[in-house]
Design goal:
Length: about 230
């Protein structure tokens, strides 16, 4: 129901922004940190390239989503929450290939990642899928794009690894097979866990519980996140 959409908006944009920067900062740990060492010149150079790519991709993705929602897509408002999710979309998109692409290629990956996020976010709403934080659009769709993007980029002649089709390589097929295997693996485990919970009635909270709000019903003090509402 579009008239109730505002009921699902985040209660604190400052916390949303702060959390986004926490995640972004952490990304510099596990992306450059995945080189596992800084003891040689080559390892340090690789970590530097990874850090640059981990900066450029989220920047362009976040700015693109912010621009689209402010200028192109109704209701054409400055959407800070969308900006934050755009940043995360860029981070997810570049993670798979952060050590195998040039900085200018990371901009392209981030740009497409922003488009993927925005498109899938709109699709989820049209399909009436309950995903209030756009988790699938950010992590599922952009993660899939980032995985496949590795197959397009990466020039082995540059000494940074990769074997992309843009440079005459055949990595794309490997990435597509990997994507299919991951989808089957995740779908299988999800059904194995979620279906029994659904049959037992344990998959979701009751309507009354959700209307009152889990923060109000379970947290103390009850007004911490309830915006003045009280536990009934």
């Amino acid at each position: 129901d579009p008239s109730k959409e505002s009921d699902f908006e985040g209660h604190s944009i400052p916390f949303c922004v702060l959390g986004t920067f926490f995640l972004w900062f952490g990304w510099y740990g596990f992306n450059p940190g995945s080189t596992l060492s800084m003891s040689t010149k080559d390892a340090a150079n690789l970590a530097g390239i990874v850090a640059v790519n981990t900066t450029l991709s989220p920047c362009i993705a976040g700015l693109l989503v912010f621009f689209l929602r402010a200028v192109v897509l109704p209701p054409r408002l400055l959407d800070v929450g969308g900006f934050c999710n755009g940043i995360l979309a860029g981070l997810v998109s570049i993670t798979a290939g952060c050590g195998f692409v040039k900085p200018w290629e990371s901009i392209i990956i981030g740009f497409i990642g922003g488009l993927v996020y925005q498109g899938v976010s709109m699709l989820m709403k049209r399909l009436k899928v309950d995903d209030v934080v756009d988790a699938f659009a950010v992590h599922g769709a952009c993660g899939l794009w980032g995985l496949i993007a590795v197959g397009f980029f990466g020039d082995p002649d540059e000494g940074i690894g990769g074997n992309g089709v843009f440079y005459g390589g055949n990595q794309l097929g490997t990435q597509i097979v990997a994507a299919i295997v991951i989808i089957i693996w995740v779908a299988g485990l999800s059904v194995t866990i979620m279906l029994p919970l659904r049959l037992l009635g344990m998959l979701r909270l009751s309507d009354g519980f959700q209307e009152a709000g889990a923060d109000v019903m379970e947290h103390s003090p009850s007004k911490a996140y309830g915006q003045g509402t009280e536990k009934k």
